[in-house]
């Protein structure tokens, strides 16, 4: 079922070709939704749905799309899928959709999506494109969740909204770090992850 | 067929747009009733939250029937007018001049027979709208409970207005002092209002949102002044 190429499409983006860490795409939403784990998680799932389907649709249409309007066609497909995701969330998980509010709409502007459509789906079959979409979003979601984990833990003392730092620690003078909740810390945490990632994978280091 | 020709491009674009529009219209129409229901349920949940009753999506309708015994609509003279309080769009009403506003009031019975009045609020925070409900004791002045919500305030800063730590500060504050309307304001820690009004502490780092809450309470409550003043006077305060 998985040839070498499809395996590469699915698993490559998790580490060696990670969209956030290596290609530095999708940083904008990594800043916006990672103050808490729950929205980061729902965001990752929503982007998965959008990118996987957009990749398949564009891949199916790839031989019919006129070259001069291909970006517009991609954008329309992505926008339509994002609206559908937004409507479904509003109908079935109203609380979460309220929490994510504008960020769902902003999936349209996520550079990873346009990047994968243009770079992969326009030149590959539907099955490979589907795997490529899932793989890239897993890589993106993984980074999102790691960042959200540290920001929520250090910024609010909770994980998924449950308090994990015991009260006795607060009593001896520990305080949540409000700076972790502000967007700049998402960039700094992302920077630390890139640093750790490159020291583990020496071949990624630029000479 | 020449896929790069203008005719092909134009037809392709038109067909695509019509197809996408049809799909989206279908999705929106088929999910609309469910979304509408969610919005109603959420509104009930918020109203109940202002009298300290926390509910889940499953029991909210039953609890709403149990606690909210009646509701009515006022004009700014304190007279009852036609209308269904629950269906009034507060966001649209606050933009009107006070004299034209329709003012919904929900009446709740808690702990057996204590009457509480709940009024909706709507205003602006830092990034988007904020709204809430505030419940008052029978005297029309003392706050029994408050609920605030926001669309997209900064998490950890302005967004803290929906946390109990902030909301519970309002309990026991008075809108009227010696029969005069003063509102309840939100002040930077260590400061207090010039006119002697009751106040609560603002959120550190959430200054604009806190000021928004303060303004929202004043603006939303002011048109009800006549009505609540009559209740206050009846109590002989």
What can you tell me about this protein's structure?
Chain A has helices at 4-11, 27-32, 37-61, 70-92, 94-100, 102-105, 111-119, 126-156, 167-171, 183-200; strands at 158-159, 162-163. Chain A is mostly helical and 207 residues long. Chain A has a domain at 19-148. In chain A, 66% of the residues lie in helices and 2% in strands. Chain A has a two-stranded antiparallel sheet. The mean pLDDT of chain A is 83. In chain B, helix 1 (6-49) crosses helix 2 (60-67). The termini of chain B are far apart. The mean pLDDT of chain B is 86. With 237 residues, chain B is an alpha+beta fold. Chain B is 36% helix and 24% strand. Chain B is elongated. In chain B, a hairpin with a 5-residue loop joins strand 1 (68-74) and strand 2. The chains are: A mainly alpha (207), B alpha+beta (237). Chain A binds chain B through residues 35-36, 64-69, 72-73, 76-77, 80, 83-84, 87-88, 90-92, 94, 98, 101-102, 155-156, 178, 181-182, and chain B through 3-4, 8-9, 12-13, 16-17, 20, 23-24, 27-28, 31, 34-35, 38-39, 41-42, 57, 128, 151-152, 154-157, 205.
Largest sheet of chain B: 6 strands, antiparallel
Distance from first to last alpha carbon of chain A: 38 Å
Catalogue the unreliable spans of chain A: none
- Average pLDDT number of chain B: 86
Work out the count of structural domains of chain B. 1
Question: Oligomer, anyone?
Answer: heterodimer
Number of helices of chain A: 10
Q: Would you summarize the structure shown here?
A:
With 207 residues, chain A is mainly α.
């Amino acid at each position: 079922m998985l040839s070498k190429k499809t395996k590469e499409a699915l698993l490559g983006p998790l580490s060696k070709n990670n969209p956030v860490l290596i290609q530095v795409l999708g940083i904008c939403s990594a800043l916006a939704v990672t103050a808490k784990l729950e929205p980061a998680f729902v965001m990752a799932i929503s982007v998965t749905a959008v990118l996987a389907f957009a990749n398949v649709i564009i891949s199916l249409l790839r031989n019919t799309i006129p070259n001069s309007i291909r970006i517009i066609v991609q954008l329309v497909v992505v926008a339509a899928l994002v609206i559908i995701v937004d409507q479904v969330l509003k109908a079935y998980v109203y609380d979460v959709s309220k929490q994510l509010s504008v960020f769902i709409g902003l999936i349209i502007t996520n550079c990873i999506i346009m990047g994968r459509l243009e770079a992969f789906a326009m030149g590959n079959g539907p099955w490979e494109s589907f795997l490529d979409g899932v793989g890239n979003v897993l890589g993106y979601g993984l980074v999102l969740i790691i960042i959200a984990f540290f920001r929520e833990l250090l910024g609010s003392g909770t994980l998924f909204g449950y308090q994990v730092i015991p009260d006795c620690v607060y009593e001896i003078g520990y305080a949540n770090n409000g700076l972790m909740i502000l967007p700049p810390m998402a960039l700094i945490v992302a920077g630390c992850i890139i640093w750790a990632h490159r020291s583990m994978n020496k071949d990624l280091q630029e000479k | 067929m020449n896929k790069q020709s203008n005719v092909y491009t134009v037809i392709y674009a038109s067909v695509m747009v019509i197809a996408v529009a049809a799909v989206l219209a279908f999705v929106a129409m088929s999910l609309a009733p469910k979304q509408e229901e969610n919005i109603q349920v959420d509104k009930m949940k918020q109203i109940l939250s202002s009298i300290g009753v926390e509910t889940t999506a499953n029991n909210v309708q039953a609890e709403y029937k149990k606690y909210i015994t009646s509701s009515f609509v006022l004009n700014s003279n304190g007279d009852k007018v036609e209308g269904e309080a629950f269906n009034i769009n507060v966001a649209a009403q606050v933009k009107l001049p006070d004299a034209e506003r329709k003012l919904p009031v929900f009446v709740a019975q808690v702990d057996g027979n204590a009457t509480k009045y709940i009024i909706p609020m709507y205003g602006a925070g830092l990034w988007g709208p904020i709204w809430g409900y505030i419940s008052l004791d029978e005297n029309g002045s003392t706050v029994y409970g408050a609920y605030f919500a926001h669309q997209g305030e900064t998490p950890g800063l302005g967004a803290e207005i929906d946390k109990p730590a902030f909301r519970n500060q309002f309990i026991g504050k008075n809108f009227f002092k010696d029969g005069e309307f003063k509102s309840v304001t939100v002040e930077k820690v260590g400061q207090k209002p010039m006119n002697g009004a009751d106040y609560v502490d603002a959120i550190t780092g959430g200054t604009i949102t806190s000021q928004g809450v303060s303004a929202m309470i004043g603006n939303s409550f002011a048109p009800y002044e006549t009505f609540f003043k009559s209740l206050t006077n009846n109590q002989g305060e």
